[in-house]
Amino acid sequence: MHQLKSFIFMLSLLWPFPLLATSDVMGLTAGIPVAPNDTEHYRFEILSTFGYTDQTGRTVIDIIEGYNINLALSVDTFDERPVNGLAPNFTLTGNSQLIPPGENTPFTSTDETGILRFGVIAGDQGMDELTVSFGANSDTIHLNIISVQVNDFPSAPTLLDGLNWKQLMQTQLQWVDEQPQVTFPEMIKNRAGEIVKVSGFMMPMDSSLVQQHFLLTSSPPHCFFDIPGGPAGVIEVFSEQGIESSWEPIIVEGLFELVTSPEMGIIYKLRQAEIVRD
Fold first, then answer.
1. Any idea of the CA torsion for 108, 3, 142, 76, to the nearest 10 degrees?
2. Statement: the pTM of the whole predicted model exceeds 0.70
3. pLDDT tens across 139-183, in order?
4. Which fold is adopted by the domain 154-275?
């Protein structure tokens, strides 16, 4: 869904030999990965399809409260050689949450194309700042976090006697040996196997008016391929009787399950779910 920078390996056999010798074989080496060196200066850039430059020259990304945005770091040398294996530092100010490399993708350092994917889950309304750095290299973007009410989006109610998204989103998912690994906090593990209540927004799986199988998300969904809040911001719900489709926030109650091997990216399930009426 998001386009990331791609590198093109170029090899020209049409250049005369003297030109190859005097050009330091740049045409031949372009595109060949190099190892990182923290004393080197690189072309070092945070990539996003939604960024823009404001009047002060800052790179800004608009994002709605509670939503996640996919980003990537691009690192290559000035002679167009991607830097492979670079593990940068991340500094995020504000109350947004970093989705670190290795949580949604198997890589924790730049790949052979010089790309490293990561993300951010937006916190409360305001301006947060994200800096990615390595040695003398750094790039900074600003996150302009917009209130979820900007489009008259409702918020999921906080439940005094249920599971809330601030608890659910403390779970971490990362890749270990190219396999997804989930770390659930104790408060979440203790609720597994219990009948729980949770509020959220329905993402239907088909066009039926009554849904027996759907996703419950932490924020109003705006794109089927970009679930708000990432893996910890969604619950797969199964209802035997079915629940009527709605764009408004709903409260459901059911048997809470944890998925320890989330091949499909789902780490929470709710079975035997029923709607909770006020």
1. 60
2. no
3. 999 999 988 665 555 677 888 888 998 889 888 877 677 677 888
4. OB fold (Dihydrolipoamide Acetyltransferase, E2P) (2.40.50)
